[in-house]
């Protein structure tokens, strides 16, 4: 059950044959056992001013399932908390009621399975954890935008063609889409926590209940992907 509800890239308990698996509603299982925002975090402050955590930490679909994201371009509505020379460095304080995993990333990025270890932290209940972030501004010469994407090896924010899983381009959203496309190519489905408000699922979706699950004889392919 834990491997299924809190899937993080490996499902060791999925290896044995499971006769009842095709009858399981994984969406309901995840909704039943995962806690909502208000039961995970509280007592949030920005510049020492209290605010309703769950009005700023909004649901974001990720490879881990629903995460609650602050200052993300991918959430709706997008609540961007700003800091500048006038306001000074931003200070965010919050309290967790459960063990949590934190991800630190740019507004256009998303948490994903291949996130570097220095960009995430596992915080146990009762622990105190401080994160300091230093911003380094990078500017590009105007001529770079005239280069083909293949030559420059990256995209500008307005170049969102071909994005099918998330709204905005970034390295992390590109990797998530690669994962989703390979899942579909190999198994004609993605795992149950993968975001699917995309054109991918519309093009490949089949009502067969087995498509909600990892077909047992194809598990080796997923190990290769991960």
From TrEMBL:
Q: Where in the cell is it found?
A: Membrane
Cite the InterPro entries for this sequence.
Answer: ENaC
Q: Which family does it belong to?
A: Belongs to the amiloride-sensitive sodium channel (TC 1.A.6) family.
Upper lineage is: Eukaryota, Metazoa, Ecdysozoa, Arthropoda, Hexapoda
> Does the record carry Cell division as a key word?
no
Q: Which organism is it from?
A: Acanthoscelides obtectus (Bean weevil)
Q: Which residues cross the membrane?
A: none
**Keywords attached to this entry:** Ion channel, Ion transport, Membrane, Sodium, Sodium channel, Sodium transport, Transmembrane, Transmembrane helix, Transport
> Membrane topology type, per the record?
Multi-pass membrane protein
Q: Which Pfam families match?
A: ASC (PF00858)
> What protein am I looking at?
Uncharacterized protein
| Broad class of the protein's primary localization | membrane
GO CC list: plasma membrane
Q: Name one GO molecular function term.
A: ligand-gated sodium channel activity
């Amino acid at each position: 059950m834990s491997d299924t509800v809190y899937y993080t890239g490996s499902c060791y308990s999925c290896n044995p044959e499971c006769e009842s698996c095709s009858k399981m509603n994984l969406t309901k299982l995840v909704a039943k056992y995962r806690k909502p925002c208000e039961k995970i975090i509280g007592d949030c402050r920005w510049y020492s001013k209290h605010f309703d955590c769950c009005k700023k930490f909004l649901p974001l679909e990720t490879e881990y399932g629903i995460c609650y994201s602050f200052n993300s371009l991918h959430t709706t509505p997008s609540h961007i908390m700003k800091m500048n020379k006038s306001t000074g460095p931003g200070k965010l304080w919050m309290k967790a009621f459960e063990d949590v995993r934190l991800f630190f990333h740019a507004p256009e990025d998303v948490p994903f399975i291949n996130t570097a270890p220095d960009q995430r932290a596992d915080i146990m209940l009762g622990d105190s954890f401080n994160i300091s972030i230093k911003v380094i501004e990078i500017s590009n010469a105007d001529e770079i935008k005239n280069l083909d994407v293949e030559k420059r090896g990256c995209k500008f924010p307005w170049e969102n063609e071909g994005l099918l899983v998330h709204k905005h381009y970034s390295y992390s959203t590109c990797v998530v889409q690669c994962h989703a496309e390979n899942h579909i190519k190999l198994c004609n489905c993605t795992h149950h926590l993968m975001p699917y408000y995309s054109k991918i699922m519309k093009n490949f979706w089949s009502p067969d209940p087995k498509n909600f699950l990892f077909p047992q004889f194809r598990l080796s392919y997923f190990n290769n992907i991960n």
